[in-house]
Write a structure and sequence with these properties.
The chain is an alpha/beta fold. It has two domains: 9-217, P-loop containing nucleotide triphosphate hydrolases (Rossmann fold); 222-298. It has 13 helices and nine strands. It has helices at 9-21, 35-47, 61-72, 87-91, 96-105, 121-136, 141-145, 162-165, 168-173, 207-210, 222-236, 241-255, 266-280, and strands spanning 51-54, 75-80, 92-94, 117-119, 149-154, 175-178, 183-186, 194-199, 214-217. The chain has a five-stranded parallel β-sheet, sandwiched between helices. The protein has a two-stranded antiparallel sheet with strand order 3-4. The chain is globular and about 75 Å long. It starts with 8 loop residues before the first helix and ends in a 25-residue tail after the last helix.
Length: 305
């Protein structure tokens, strides 16, 4: 087992891939990764800690996990947090009701409890590493890399207050026990998943949880508009620059409107700009910056009449 202060061979490969992708989006992976965000990811990889990404909705937090999945070529497990989510949902679920019904129907047969336990997203990532752990010692680095995965815990601020704190032990030790079977699911340090946690900062997260995470906030300040140029160029090419400049000016005006309850962010703008490109093929006035009133509803969630 590797020392917690030793950088594994698989982590080093991931860091090299990350470094080569900064500000270099591709056709199949158009996410524009800033140096600041790449540095935060790099720290999380080195420390083996979850990466907590905060920012207003639509700034690319969730898409980051999809970007890293393509960049690292790893399996992605996505947990969409709900207001009713429990920490155990991330680990595993025991279908007690189906077990009880089957036991009543098959009274003369012994029902195996393992058949009623399914792994959650974090559990599946742990189990993937556990299944391969016995082969990891003899595997080459490329084979070991395939044993790792990415877990996205999306919008954790939706969950009840106790949700993050109930994961502290699992995030510290990268192991948990299925209490119904007493089976331990654990990760080798070299094979543990990359955990990305997103939050819209709708409520504060508990400090014990924050201490276990590497933190990065995606802000929408003036430099974000320069980054928007790179994002649009990566996704749409350079053939619509005139329309883009007019659309960007309108976007900035809306962002600066302090009377708006929900200001548009990158995701809304990209969807709106795609709409403008398509609509401009029939309506040439759009290329002149004369946007029909109804189109604004795709950018800003406000009444148009």
């Amino acid at each position: 087992m590797a020392s917690p202060f030793t950088t594994s061979s698989t982590t080093q490969i991931l860091r090299e891939k990350l470094s080569g992708f900064v500000n270099k989006p591709t056709d199949d992976n158009p996410y524009v990764l800033t140096q600041e965000l790449a540095d935060a990811i790099d720290v999380a990889l080195l420390l083996g800690q979850p990466l907590l990404i905060t920012g207003e909705p639509g700034t690319g937090k969730t898409v980051l996990a999809q970007c890293l999945q393509k960049l690292f070529d790893l399996e992605l497990y996505v947990f969409n947090t709900k207001t009713t989510s429990l920490a155990n949902d991330l680990l595993y679920q025991y279908d007690m009701l189906r077990h009880f019904v089957d036991a009543q129907i098959q009274k003369d047969k012994l029902t195996v409890i393992e058949n009623y336990i399914s792994m959650g997203m974090l559990g599946r990532a742990f189990e993937k590493a556990l299944i391969n752990q016995q082969n990891a010692m003899s595997a080459d680095t490329a084979s070991k890399l395939k044993m790792r995965s990415i877990v996205l815990i999306d919008e954790i601020d939706k969950a009840p207050r106790d949700f993050p704190n109930d994961l502290l032990n699992e995030l510290d030790r990268y192991r948990f026990t299925v209490k119904e079977t007493q089976k331990e699911v654990a990760c080798d340090p070299d094979l543990k998943p990359i955990i990305i946690v997103t939050s819209n900062t709708e409520k504060n997260l508990p400090e014990p949880f924050l201490r276990r995470c590497v933190f990065h906030h995606i802000s929408f300040e003036k430099d974000r508009y320069k980054m928007l140029d790179d994002i649009v160029r990566a996704r749409f090419g350079a053939g619509n620059d005139g329309l883009y400049q007019k659309a960007k000016a309108m976007f900035i005006d809306l962002r600066n409107n302090n009377n708006m309850q929900k200001k548009p962010a990158t995701a809304e703008f990209l969807g709106w700009f795609h709409l403008l490109i398509e609509m401009s093929k029939q309506n040439k006035e759009i290329n002149e910056g004369k946007f029909p009133l109804a189109l604004y509803s795709a950018l800003a969630k406000i009444k148009t009449i």
